[in-house]
Amino acid sequence: MxxxxxxxxxxxxxxxxxxxxxxxxxxLQGPSSGNGRRMTSKKTRSKKGKRRKRRRSKKTKTNKTxxxxxxxxxxxxxxxxxxxxxxTQLKWRLQEGRGEAVYQIxxxxxxxxxxxSEGDMRASLKTLRxxxxxxxxxxxxxxxxxxxxxxxxxxxxxxxxxxxxxxDDQQFLDLRVAVLGNVDSGKSTLLGVxxxxxxxxxxxxxxxNLFRHLHEIQTGRTSSISFEILGFNSKGEVVNYSDSxxxxxxxxxxxxxxTFIDLAGHHKYLxxxxxxxxxxxxxxxxxxxxxxxxxxxxxxEHLGLAMALKVPIFIVVSxxxxxxxxxVERTVRQLEHVLKLPGCNKVPMVVASPDDAVTAAQQFxxxxxxxxxxxxxxxxxxxLALLKVFFNILPPLSNSKEQEELMQxxxxxxxxxxxxxxxxxxxxxxxxxSGVCRExxxxxxxxxxxxxxxxxxxxxxxxxxxxxxxxRAGQAATLALGNFDRSLLRKGMVMVSPKMNPTICWQxxxxxxxxxxxxxxxxxxQVTVHVGNVRQTATVECLHGKVSNTNYKLGNTVLRRAQExxxxxxxxxxxxPPRALLLKYTLPQYGPRSVGHNFVQCSDRNVII
Length: 609
Description:
The chain is of the alpha+beta class. Belongs to the TRAFAC class translation factor GTPase superfamily. Classic translation factor GTPase family. EF-Tu/EF-1A subfamily.
């Protein structure tokens, strides 16, 4: 209270406040107390004020030494009560960080790097380790630096420590990373090296385990969406297929999971790439650029898609073993130039050391303008360790409060894949958009072509090929539906709670933002609309409004900035009867026949909403 009144130290503030109290009392007593009494009180106050000033001056003289650290930054031999308070604080920080927290020891609250002696640092780390054991977590020393203010004083250190909770009941931290980039840039090879733990032989051996079809193996080009996982245990060590035989073992040993969504890079499969970005809701996007070819093919297009969907993106320059150092530097400069253009407004950050990787991971999650750039090789293994350090420290974008709000909403599960498994029946795969889904829960699935919703029951739930009983918002899984007729299901449907009472539409309105296209957007224009997990062909019925002529460049691509965005009314003409789609919980609803807000047109008649 005192410090808030005057903004000074606690002792000085208390003296200032108390010195004003007698004068206030004398004014409230009125003239009946007499002038002599008032004079006496003034003399007394002046003497007391002089004594307080002398005491304050003595304390000021004795406090000329450097200020001590706050107790929570030093952590040396805390009392039992203080230790319980610190453990409770650590538990709260882990909950806010969804299982992760970073402690900076030797740093004041205002950011001043004071440092600790070697003995105090050892004692502080020992206390932090005891705190972590109490809440069921492990600690990992990220980096340690020396701080020396005076030449005659011993060198002091500051440390940065990662605290990660040991998971229970499949509740590990899961981050989804979409892998983008031009064809032959080395996306699948890089994922194979990261997840298999073996370097490539230069002829694509590492990517063979990722391909799903024979023609992908023959051509070396990804045409479908595949998933790979990379785990980290509570101590920050990599857990992949080099140590574990199955995905179940990786999940059991991991406290943090990185799920890679390998997308197609060829222009022919652009619709599949867009579907992967809109349907699986990636937390981050990794743009892979070949060092020998630079920005070519669909690289700009994929960069524009990630920015339009507001997915944080970082860049990996691969195949540095094939090029001279000057070629790699030229590719990096080209990327920096594109990222700094008005269409991007990004701040590139080249990662060249473990300290850079730690800083990049922390800044990347806090600021959407930071774009880390890695230069590595899947054959020689150059700088692969930096990328692993980055993934290990990379925090989630949402905190525990936002996650809790999503879990309190009604259940909505997006159907992305449909399977028929022997002795199990119909199985659907997808992502839980909101709410909580449990075994045996009764939901409704739809809409059908007639706009109806059908009742069903969830039999069992599997995450990363491991059985679990509860599925929470933001998690991807497969649900067994038993004997439910598969012919009644299709991609783009949703499984929702019966209490939701969902609204369907055959027509909607949206504002147009034109990214890049060679043809004219007009009435009767036929497009493919992507709304979440919905991918449907549609026709523009009419346009209202005008588009301004404010243009700017992103590399060699001209972008148009819309000042007055026109409205487009769109409907589905190619189904009999017209196919009903559920758009209510993806877009704001403006009326019984119009749903929509942002309408982004890309090349090849693809539309993202």
